[in-house]
Amino acid sequence: MLLSLRIIITPLYVLLAGVQAEFITDNCKLISQSKSEQNALHLLEPLTNQTFTTEGKEKDFSYIFQVCGDAGGIKDAGLVQQDKKGGKLVRIGNYTNTRAIRGSDWVLLFYEGGEKYDSHCSQEARRAMIMISCSTSTTNAFSVVLEDNQKQQDCYYLFELDSNAVCPVIPSKVSAGSIFLIIVFCCLAVYLTGGFLYQRLVVGAKGVEQFPNYTFWSEIGNLSADGCDFVCRSRGNREERPTYRGVATEPLGEEQEERDDHLLPM
Ligand SMILES: *[C@@H]1O[C@H](CO)[C@@H](O)[C@H](O)[C@H]1NC(C)=O
Ligand SMILES: *[C@@H]1O[C@H](CO)[C@@H](O)[C@H](O)[C@H]1NC(C)=O
């Protein structure tokens, strides 16, 4: 019963979500368009319009991160590095050069096309990788893991963000109480239809007699009516009534006899 409800509601919900205003995560531009990467981006929708900051290991830099929005106010930069002394901002990656890879409870986000290295890494463009993992905590924890730049190519900055946005959706569990009610309801339905068919087809009952165990239930009904009668009616009334009747009927009878006598012809 509940399952069929979910089957009806889920497409409705998807339809409504489709009608809903466009995703902020669509501001991100995927390097290679793919449906699965698009879906991975949409999963990050709750993280948009937020600025995440963290300090570097040596506390000489801080990092500013936004999901598909300008970090540190720099156009198209999703992740920037800020020099603590001079306050100078360095573009690490563009959200307009994105990849998004999704696992069961994580999304790996790439921001590429940052400012070129001066001397390291064959002077290639900087890039950021942000590992967004499921966390049941309601607060998002952002931190830098490492800057891997001691090599000729494919250097990267690696960050971590713990968030409940990427947690797998657990199908809602029906509580024990409602399971009990469902079972009772189903048993009742089976009893009523089964009993009805038995009474009608096997016993050949007609009218209210088709109701299963009709006599038993009507007896229960009568008994409870009696019980209610006993409990609900006030005691005074009950004791008064017989005396009233006893006194009232006797003189009335005599009077009537007397009146009859008058009517008899003398
Ligand atoms: C997110 O930010 C954009 C641009 O600043 C703004 O137009 C939009 O209303 C914001 N959305 C939410 C949900 O705060
Ligand atoms: C990153 O964004 C900036 C600003 O829009 C742009 O000048 C730069 O070319 C972009 N990088 C890449 C690789 O597209």
TrEMBL record:
Membrane disposition: Single-pass type I membrane protein; Single-pass membrane protein
One MF term in the entry's GO annotations: protein domain specific binding
Region Disordered, annotated ranges: 242-266
PROSITE patterns: MRH (PS51914)
Keyword Signal: yes
GO biological process, one term: protein targeting to lysosome
Gene3D superfamilies: Mannose-6-phosphate receptor binding domain (2.70.130.10)
Keywords associated with the record: Disulfide bond, Glycoprotein, Lysosome, Membrane, Phosphoprotein, Receptor, Signal, Transmembrane, Transmembrane helix, Transport
UniProt keyword Transmembrane present: yes
Pfam families named among the record's database cross-references: Man-6-P_recep
Domain MRH: 26-169
Signal peptide segment: 1-21
Compartment(s) where it occurs, according to its Swiss-Prot or TrEMBL record: Endomembrane system; Lysosome membrane
Residues spanning the membrane: 176-198
Coiled-coil regions listed: none
Function according to Swiss-Prot or TrEMBL: Transport of phosphorylated lysosomal enzymes from the Golgi complex and the cell surface to lysosomes. Lysosomal enzymes bearing phosphomannosyl residues bind specifically to mannose-6-phosphate receptors in the Golgi apparatus and the resulting receptor-ligand complex is transported to an acidic prelyosomal compartment where the low pH mediates the dissociation of the complex.
PANTHER family, per the entry: CATION-DEPENDENT MANNOSE-6-PHOSPHATE RECEPTOR, MANNOSE-6-PHOSPHATE RECEPTOR FAMILY MEMBER
This protein's name: Cation-dependent mannose-6-phosphate receptor
Organism listed in the record: Sinocyclocheilus rhinocerous
